[in-house]
Specification:
By secondary structure, the chain is an all-beta fold. Helix content is about 5%, strand content about 30%. The protein is globular and about 50 Å long.
Length: about 190
């Protein structure tokens, strides 16, 4: 008799199967891309409907806050080797200081103790000259650009490799001779 629990509707009586009313696209809210929340609790990950008619993309949704022009992305650093491998960090206009502290523009706190806490090196984007520069900061250990130590401000070209301790970074420039945010028309002006 124990074997026929399912035949008598044991599971259907105790378990209510929920069927979605709308099978439109969804996105995860909370948690990370693996489907697990930071605490590891799958139940805390929810989905939210997106697309026409949903509150996330509908007319009731507030438009995203505009960002200041000095916060626009000008390039990226991609960690190729060492702790943090596979991550990327956006660069902004002006001076971007690098170090392990979370207050740094380029926060490299992934476990490489050879990187100084603050101002190990800096990367600057000069929008008038449309060029990037790298300069060693106050870090005890040297910063290398394509295997050459950086001792003074040096031009930084897209595709260059920056090494500090056990960490190797690839510089990818967005702004420069071929593109500058000032050359584009903002959406609200068109």
């Amino acid at each position: 008799m124990a074997g026929d629990d399912n035949e008598r509707g044991f599971f259907s009586a105790r378990t209510k199967r929920l069927k979605p009313k709308d099978t439109g696209p969804t996105r995860k809210v909370g948690g990370d891309d693996t489907g697990k929340s930071k605490a590891g609790d799958r139940a805390s990950v929810m989905t939210q409907r997106v697309g026409p008619g949903s509150s996330a993309a509908g007319k009731d949704a507030a438009p995203p806050e505009p960002i200041a022009e000095n916060e626009y992305v000008t390039g990226w650093l991609v960690i190729l080797k060492g702790p943090g491998r596979g991550r990327s960090i956006s660069l902004r206009y002006g001076l971007n200081t690098a170090g392990r502290a979370s207050t740094q523009d380029i926060a490299l706190d992934f476990g490489d103790a050879q990187i100084s806490r603050e101002n190990h090196f800096s990367i600057a984007y000069d929008n008038k000259g449309r060029q990037f520069f790298i300069q060693h900061g106050g870090g005890q250990n040297l910063t290398y650009l394509n295997e050459t130590p950086v001792m003074a401000a040096t031009t930084l070209e897209s595709g260059a490799k920056i090494s500090i301790g056990d960490t190797e970074l690839l510089f990818v420039g967005l702004c420069g001779a071929d593109f500058e945010w000032a050359d584009t028309t903002p959406p609200e002006a068109s």
